[in-house]
């Protein structure tokens, strides 16, 4: 019986991780739908956002290392700290600025290129942003605390212990993260469905030319979706950064959104949500049951292998449209 | 003596199809070969071998391998690091299990084993394309590295989890292990690169190369003119992985001497090699060399300037390198998607018309 | 309606028309609920030029795709050279000796004209992997022999001067010609042309017509072509199949088809009931 509860606990934890994957995957889907760009840099965006947030919050001097190296100064901090809310708002602003710059300097010059070229360009972008994050804020592992509750939730533990005779261990941060992510997912879906900008975005996704001809500005839409993706990256960066520190591996966690997308289909919003949940639960359960037999740390590859195997049997993903090839 | 084909008439299709149809190119090629084999080994020292030449030769093999798959056959792979790890661990197991067999055979066998693994992970390419496939190859990358870290048999149950290359000799000279001399490291890598590059050149100009390029340019049309996509794609995966496996084996056994799957063959290695062929030129043998040279030299150069001359910290230089490489990738994709190879070709075309451009 | 022809029939201009090369029997092709081809039968004889015509959306391209193995029909049989063709992948069909061109030009843009045409001969080159890697023995011999054949086709289609040009840089008309060259390089038994004149000006159309007739005349290649342009088709072809809304509404010599009431209705746009 305990074993079953244990599995249920793993399942719940997987579900909560999955919601985060869904959120990041949604960032991908929005960009892919609106601009046909498969954005490999999404993970690094999350890292960059988290680094920037910590940097602003703790009053770090941007590019301190570079300035010190160039002028022999010894700058580190301004000596103030910025309240979390303000720091988050400032970071969000920087992400919008970044979206604008990416559109201006990269995407605009690659219009009409093959998707695979765009994909490789985002890999280059990922490298650039990773380097820039490090140069701006330093590469040491940072702790991030924006006041989210952490630690095992006593309420859940005592409640479940009373009802079921088995206390569920759930991290309060995870619970909060799940709620915020679920809220954001709902907000994004509502945005895409019901607002004027959302409709314009979907129109662009369907047909660039047709959207242009009814007076929708492609550039505006692109900056908008990249800003949204940046914002989503920020939220993911906050959650994961709070949990395990702000460091390079954060961008690898966010990369899990890629197999999520392959599972869900690149163009499907419900696909991203369901795919994220499947991957989150799948990798936790796999690690729980199979992991101990093979030495653990299967989370590194499980999502990718699952997506790979799945795609061989259903190349268009769970909810993607079937591709009919024509000559 | 002008650089052009005028007056250099080809009278047979054989002459017309040769690798360097222009006489000056052919001579240049022989001069470079002679210098590489006869002159460099005399003057090479440990710094040049370790910092520049040996990594260049090894990465040139890896870049050639990836270029076969991505540049010629059009299948983007992000699993290069994982496949290099297969080559490294295969050669390690072979070296330690059969010490009496020549290391050259072990390296070739390691390439063969990698080719088999490559074909296995290439099977999905029959169903999935483009960046779907690119992401699918990430499965190979993460799974293989995890496998070599987690299964002690692969690293002979060593306490550190690392693999370490024992000393092995070719013609009495040590080519692996701590006592290897700089010329020996250089020459064994050079020999492999020379033979492999020559074979790849032959494959890409013949039937198989045309099948690969047909699949790359338009897979449906290729199938309708009679190219079997199964054999075309899988042969590209096999040849590509063979080269990448050999590069991985050389990187571990000859260059590094000791390796840990996570550090030596992580996802960054996949990107490094991919960047080499993007900057060098997709679908070009010269481009594989140029890209490998560029990305091997860039960090050395930056380190010399930023750390050596300016006295900046090493890690800052490394981060600036990331930014420069990333920016260069974007730059090349925007301005010259065919890479350095195309720039070289344009220069040569201009040279052919010189001094009368009109 | 189906006009009977004798084996060994000789056309007015002296070409030999032989027995049945390809026989399509009761072909039906559906995409989901949409019926693209509905119970169509016709044959193609050795040495003739056979046209399939019809208005937009009549199912002509689908029919060509069935012949070249790209689509597999739900019902019906395809007979080629007296044998029933089982379910086959397109590359297997190509190896039977069926080559084709495409309406929207499907050349390999990254390769030179010469390499593109050489791909047409891929199925004739049998050198093993190691022979190719070493460029020694069979691989080199085959390359040069096949190059000779390809050069003949290059001369025939008058494209000597663009041999080494990457195909992506060529203008439309030349691309069409290169595509024809690639199909011819395979020395096919049956050559399928998908709207060979589409998007061409009058001069280019005349050139293309001449090439098609020359190919048929000099190499004796059987040709099946789809065309929009009624005028051109009537001049070129020996027999014509007319399709409309996935059905066959006419089949016979150009003169017979021209006087067929149903065909006239389809082309002049009489309302369908």
TrEMBL record, chain A:
Keywords: Amino-acid transport, Cell membrane, Membrane, Transmembrane, Transmembrane helix, Transport. InterPro entries: ABC_transp_permease (IPR001851), BCAA_transport_permease (IPR052157). One of its GO terms (molecular function) is transmembrane transporter activity. Pfam families: BPD_transp_2. It is a multi-pass membrane protein. Belongs to the binding-protein-dependent transport system permease family. LivHM subfamily. This is Branched-chain amino acid ABC transporter permease.
From TrEMBL, chain B:
Pfam families: BPD_transp_2. The chain crosses the membrane at residues 27-44, 50-69, 101-123, 130-148, 183-200, 236-259, 271-296, 316-335. The keyword Cell membrane applies. GO terms for cellular component: plasma membrane. It is a multi-pass membrane protein. Its main location: membrane. It is found in: Cell membrane. This is Branched-chain amino acid ABC transporter permease. PANTHER family: ABC TRANSPORTER PERMEASE PROTEIN (PTHR30482:SF5), HIGH-AFFINITY BRANCHED-CHAIN AMINO ACID TRANSPORT SYSTEM PERMEASE (PTHR30482). The keyword Ion transport does not apply. It comes from Paracoccus siganidrum. Keywords: Cell membrane, Membrane, Transmembrane, Transmembrane helix. GO terms for molecular function: branched-chain amino acid transmembrane transporter activity. It comes from the Bacteria. InterPro entries: ABC_transp_permease (IPR001851), LivM-like (IPR043428).
